[in-house]
Amino acid sequence: MEITEKLLKFKFHILSFFAFSFLIITVCYLAPRFLDILKYFWPLLVSTALFLVAVVVFDRISPLSVESPGEKAGDGLLEFVAGEPATGEADAAAEEESAKAE
């Protein structure tokens, strides 16, 4: 009697387990085989592999960009857009303000 009460407590869990198992078995039975899928998609897989190989090859043979340790390209433009004066301009602006104050 005690076991029956516990089984009835988990009745929905047991039914959902069997329904899910039946669904998985049905899908596995009706689904196409892996080799059939591979035969259908082999051109796509090969072209993707060749593209990735070409990317790796071009990455290896392309020359490395040598940048000067000083100002990087675009830093001046970024400072101009941000409104931050360059160090030389800041010193000149400070001198102009001190000259006006005198």
UniProtKB/TrEMBL annotation:
Domain of life of the source: Eukaryota
TM region(s), chain numbering: 12-34, 40-58
Tagged with keyword Membrane: yes
Keywords: Membrane, Transmembrane, Transmembrane helix
UniProt keyword Membrane present: yes
PANTHER family linked: OS01G0762900 PROTEIN, TRANSMEMBRANE PROTEIN
Descriptive protein name: Transmembrane protein
